[in-house]
Design brief:
The complex is a heterotrimer of chains A (287), B (240) and C (324). Chain A contains eleven helices and two strands, in the order ααααββααααααα. Chain A has one domain: Orthogonal Bundle (ABC transporter involved in vitamin B12 uptake, BtuC). Chain A is globular. Chain A is mainly α. In chain A, helix 9 crosses helix 10. In chain A, a hairpin with a 2-residue loop joins strand 1 and strand 2. Chain A starts with a helix and ends in an 8-residue tail after the last helix. Chain B is globular, with a radius of gyration of 18 Å. Chain B has two domains: 163 residues, P-loop containing nucleotide triphosphate hydrolases (Rossmann fold); 69 residues, no CATH class. In chain B, strand 7, helix 6 and strand 8 form a beta-alpha-beta unit. A six-stranded mixed sheet of chain B has the order 6-7-8-3-9-10, sandwiched between helices. Chain B is built from eight helices and ten strands. Chain C has a domain of 209 residues. With 324 residues, chain C is mainly α. Chain C is built from 15 helices and two strands. The chains are: A mainly alpha (287), B alpha/beta (240), C mainly alpha (324). Chains A and C meet through helix 4, helix 9 and helix 11 of A and helix 6, helix 12 and helix 14 of C.
């Protein structure tokens, strides 16, 4: 019989990892909602961000600096990618975006292998965020709590950006009816770029925060594609709230399954996606 | 029509959809002396395609479009809207996930190029004068608006900022008679400010408002007059 | 009116020139490169053709066809190791296993349009791959692969010429027949305009489903042959990382043509070989990136693929999007 403490621990783990995956996935969902592209490159930005954070930590030992600087670099990179590659395929058949996305991901994977070598890397959270705290008999890593708080803040900030700023509202309007927005004088190229860079920034921050938790290897980009996709399928494309809830559901299903059999834990996320596809293909929170 | 008088000039316009040709060498113009130009034709004759090409949403395969003396053939649609070339698509499309007020603010953000709340609110006030019904609905999500209310919002949005030509695509389609009357009277009022290019299936409205008429059939313009009184209703139905 | 038999053959030749070209290429290939290399090129070519049936003709890009190839391989391997000595039965098991999983995946993957199809196929691939290296590792051999007990040992070269090439020919002919048949035409029509197909009374879901079954059959069957040839199955054949090779082959060679995937497979293997020769084991670092670059360049500038580019150069006009 599994102890209650263990279950509580796994719950916190699931929620933590779920919200972090959700942060990474929002951008993926927004790219599809607005520009109708499947932005696989997103996974590449995530992967690159984890490695950059690692390197900056090695150099500076300052976690905040590493996270922020890595995210900014990735955002700048995503701007170039959007302007010179992605913009060429807007409005075209959607599998163009899929293939280009994979192409960009593969290039980034190779770059990672080249710069950092294929050997796994890892690093620990900074001392301030290390260690455990005890709630009753349950021990919770401090870093998990930090992630929960950080992810919540990120989500609130994202919500604020999308719902309370003019650019955010324009993005929402564009998701509703892209053509109508164009006819109102909105420069959609600018909106697409902002949307893309914002999405990539979130992917980068997600990756940077995730980095101390995982072992870095060149294929982490690949491993997150399906997780992102599962979350977005379960939550519904274009829905921020849906992404958050779906992220938590997916995170929990992985952590609970891991109690019984860690090797198929990830497979459960896909099973979930498949079930949702069968019952409610538009996602649980589609308007 | 001399260039200096023309607000809109379309020459030699052809549009293909894949291999199928939708518009064949369209020639038409709208000048300062036109008030309301009606475009009539059966379903599938290419009317919407023509308006969408002028609006910039569709790229023509051949031809030239001039607006206020400027060649806009390759200009993106959003820039055309900023020049004052406004197209209101059919089906009363508004942004359903935003409130009425937010819809108007997005329109202002685009057409006025500013988020300065004083200017924006003044402009919003201006359109609310024209559509007082929307005042009560400002905080409602556009999703819950009725068809007529959506169309009011639709028009309110597009009328923000300077307008030099307003193109309407079946604006009264599916509306109750009282609303049709309301829009008819509204268009009558604003025709003094700028020309209106109107696709309509409602013949009485055309009778009442239009002074010029284009007839389209199977992708071509088959008839044009600048004085609609020269042709009787039954006759243009026959031509179609 | 009777046609003379020579006229018939000439007609057959010109209409099916692409099949003859493919067969000739593969007949001749072992003279220049080691047989095993030729076999891999052939197998990936057919697997890419399977992807192409769904993409070039059905408009749906699968990122999980390695699963189907792998199941053909492993199905036959399991059969020979644990069930039977009969080769034909083992091949049947492999094909059946592939078809069943393909049928299962199709239920979910076809519920919505591309891109859902692409990623759901990938999801199935990853799911099975994780089963293979996880809970089922003791049966599958996981990373180490599985050695297969063959009841008869055949000389590799003989096998290539007496079994593999004829099977290739049969699969090519079946593909031609499928694409030219009613269902093939409906598949193409569905990819172009699903609503129209519905309005004339057909069910697009069923059409796409049958397409996927045929595609699974192609990939699975060639997988069975690979196992027979190698007397070994490697985890790579079912690994999701193999999908980029297949997609690359289809896109580089030319989607919507039968010969395209084979050209693509040849190009991939040449590329792989050159990199290995130039860089040794470092090649693995760059191969992925180079494929990625190719994919980007192809999607932005050369969407038609190499076959179409050559055709245009020689003939002076464009090949249509769909070539049967």
């Amino acid at each position: 019989m599994v102890s209650l403490d263990f279950i509580v621990q796994q719950t916190i783990l699931g929620l933590m990892i779920g919200t972090l995956y959700a942060v990474v996935s929002i951008g993926f969902s927004l790219s599809f909602g607005l520009a109708r592209i499947i932005n696989i490159a997103h996974a590449g930005f995530y992967a690159l961000a984890t490695y950059l954070t690692y390197t900056f930590m090695v150099i500076s030992n300052n976690f905040a600096f590493s996270v922020i600087f890595a995210s900014l670099i990735i955002s700048a990179l995503s701007f170039l990618v959007e302007r010179y590659l992605i913009s060429k395929i807007y409005g075209k058949h959607i599998d163009l975006s899929l293939v280009i996305g994979f192409g960009i991901l593969f290039v980034m994977s190779s770059v990672i292998k080249f710069i950092w070598t294929p050997e796994p890397k890892s690093f620990s959270p900074p001392p301030l965020l290390s260690g455990q705290i005890f709630v009753g008999r349950v021990s919770i890593p401090v870093y998990y709590l930090f992630i929960l708080i950080a992810s919540s803040c990120i989500f609130i900030a994202t919500w604020f950006f999308i719902n309370k700023t003019m650019i955010g509202r324009t993005i929402k309007a564009g998701i509703d009816d892209l053509e109508r927005v164009i006819l109102l004088g909105i420069n959609i190229n600018r909106i697409f770029t902002i949307n893309y860079v914002f999405s990539s920034f979130l992917a980068a921050i997600g990756g940077a925060l995730m980095a101390p938790l995982i072992s870095l290897h060149p294929a982490i980009g690949h491993s997150i594609i399906l997780l992102m996709f599962s979350i977005v399928v379960v939550g519904g494309m274009g829905s921020i709230f849906g992404t958050l809830v779906a992220g938590m559901i997916v995170g929990l299903s992985i952590s609970y399954t891991a109690i019984y059999n860690p090797s198929i834990a990830e497979g459960m996320a896909y099973l979930l996606m498949v079930i949702v596809l069968l019952i409610k293909p538009e996602g649980l929170f589609k308007k | 029509m001399r260039d200096s008088e023309a607000i809109l000039e379309v020459s030699n316009l052809s549009v293909f959809y894949g291999e199928a040709q939708i518009l064949y060498d369209i020639e038409m113009s709208i000048g300062k002396k036109n008030r309301v130009v009606a475009l009539l034709g059966r379903n599938g004759s290419g009317k919407t395609t023509l308006l969408r090409s002028i609006a910039g949403v569709i790229r023509p395969t051949r031809g030239k479009i001039s607006f206020l003396g400027q060649d806009i053939t390759l200009m993106p649609a959003w820039k055309r809207a900023l020049l004052g070339l406004k197209y209101i698509p059919p089906d009363k499309r508004v942004f359903t996930s935003l409130t009425v007020y937010e819809n108007l603010r997005v329109a202002a953000y685009g057409l006025l190029r500013t988020s300065n709340s004083t200017i924006v609110d003044k402009e919003i006030e201006k359109v609310l004068e024209i559509f007082p019904r929307l005042r009560k609905l400002l905080n409602n999500k556009a999703l819950y608006l009725s068809g007529g209310e959506r169309q009011m919002l639709n028009l309110a949005m597009s009328m923000m900022g300077p307008t030099k030509l307003l193109m309407l695509d079946e604006p009264t389609e599916g509306l109750a008679p009282a609303l049709v009357q309301f829009f008819s009277e509204l268009l009558d009022k604003i025709r003094t400010d700028f020309p209106i290019f109107l696709i309509e299936q409602n013949l009485p409205i055309i009778r009442r408002l239009a002074d010029s008429l284009y007839l389209m059939k199977e992708g071509r313009i088959i008839y044009h007059t600048d004085d609609i009184n020269t042709i009787r209703g039954g006759e243009y139905m026959k031509l179609l | 009116m009777m046609k003379t038999s020579s006229k018939n053959f000439g007609f057959l030749l010109t209409r099916n020139l692409d099949l003859f070209i493919i067969l000739i290429i593969f007949l001749v290939l072992p003279r220049f490169i080691p047989v095993t290399f030729a076999v891999h090129t052939l197998v990936y070519g057919v697997a890419a053709l399977a992807v192409n049936v769904m993409y070039g003709y059905g408009g749906l890009l699968s990122f999980g066809h390695a699963l189907l190839l792998g199941l053909g391989c492993y199905g036959t391997a399991f059969a020979l190791n644990y069930l039977t000595d009969n080769i034909v039965l083992a091949v049947a098991v492999g094909a059946l296993l592939t078809l069943s999983v393909g049928a299962l995946a199709g239920i979910f993957a076809l519920r919505r349009r591309d891109p859902y199809f692409s990623l759901v196929m990938l999801a199935f691939n990853v799911f099975f791959y994780q089963l293979w290296v996880g809970p089922l590792a003791s049966w599958t051999g996981s990373d180490m692969g599985l050695f297969v007990k063959l009841p008869v040992t055949l000389d590799k070269s003989t096998f290539y010429h007496t079994v593999l090439i004829p099977i290739l020919a049969i699969l090519l002919v079946l593909t031609k027949i499928f694409l030219k048949s009613c269902i093939g035409s409906l598949l193409i029509a569905t990819s172009e305009n699903e609503e129209k197909v519905k309005s004339i009374g057909h069910n697009p879901y069923v059409i796409k489903y049958i397409g996927l079954l045929f595609s699974s059959f192609l990939a699975g069957l060639i997988g069975t042959q690979l196992t027979l040839y190698l007397a070994y199955v490697g985890i790579d054949y079912i690994s999701p990382m193999t999908n980029p090779i297949l997609v690359f082959s289809v896109l580089v060679g030319g989607a919507g043509t039968i010969i395209g995937p084979f050209i693509g497979s040849i190009i991939y293997n040449i590329l792989n070989y050159i990199l290995l020769v130039l860089l040794g084991w470092h090649a693995t670092i760059y191969l992925e990136g180079i494929i990625g670059l190719f994919l980007i360049i192809l999607m932005i500038w050369f969407r038609g693929g190499l076959y179409r580019a050559i055709y245009r150069l020689i003939k002076g006009y464009h090949l249509p999007d769909v070539v049967r």
